[in-house]
Amino acid sequence: METDEQREEYDKLRRRVLWTMPYGLYVVGSTDHHAERNFMTLNWATQMSFEPKLLGIGVEKQSLTHRLITQGRAFSLCTVAREDRAIVRKFTKPVEVDLTAMTLNGFPFHDGTSGAPILDQAPGFLDCTVRQDVDAGNHTFFIGEIVDAGFQADEATPVLRMEDTRMNYGG
Ligand SMILES: Cc1cc2nc3c(=O)[nH]c(=O)nc-3n(C[C@H](O)[C@H](O)[C@H](O)COP(=O)(O)O)c2cc1C
After folding, report:
1. Quick one: 2 exposed, middle or buried, by C-beta within 10 A (0-12, 13-18, 19+)?
2. For ligand 1, atom 21, which residue shows the shortest CA distance?
3. 93 lies in a domain?
4. Among the four 29, 79, 85, 114, which has the fewest Cβ within 10 Å?
């Protein structure tokens, strides 16, 4: 029989293996289509299909972003310039919305085609409307269809990946 110690050892080992998975790092925009907007740092993102163009993101059920995507049926996935890496620490809890200045935590944004906010300083963005909510433990995997995409900086701008930071999410 497995002892508690063996189980703990395996938990630690599994976490270390999970941490070696390569990821990008993004800012996700969400809205209720009224006064609420949010930006959240996220690395669980992937393209899902060529036709239609589907994109999936894993969002914690307890988060504000989860509530807004569930209500608003939309999200944006914004890339982050490698030199802007400090930004990801600004979006780990609900933001301060200023609809007069059109800023979230002081960062200028505009509303995309889907209605979700897009970070103005993101080198690129993918704007999605939700097609499916897949229940996944303590997260929901939201699958969205891309309704708009664009560059807002030079296409060659190096984008941030998890490995450029000392952060982890997962494990
Ligand atoms: C490096 C990093 C990666 C993260 N990746 C995810 C992710 O993939 N999914 C997720 O739900 N939260 C992720 N988070 C946590 C969220 O950024 C955030 O703390 C939390 O979900 C609350 O967001 P809220 O403002 O929507 O309430 C990550 C945090 C960090 C620092």
Report:
1. exposed
2. 63
3. yes
4. 85
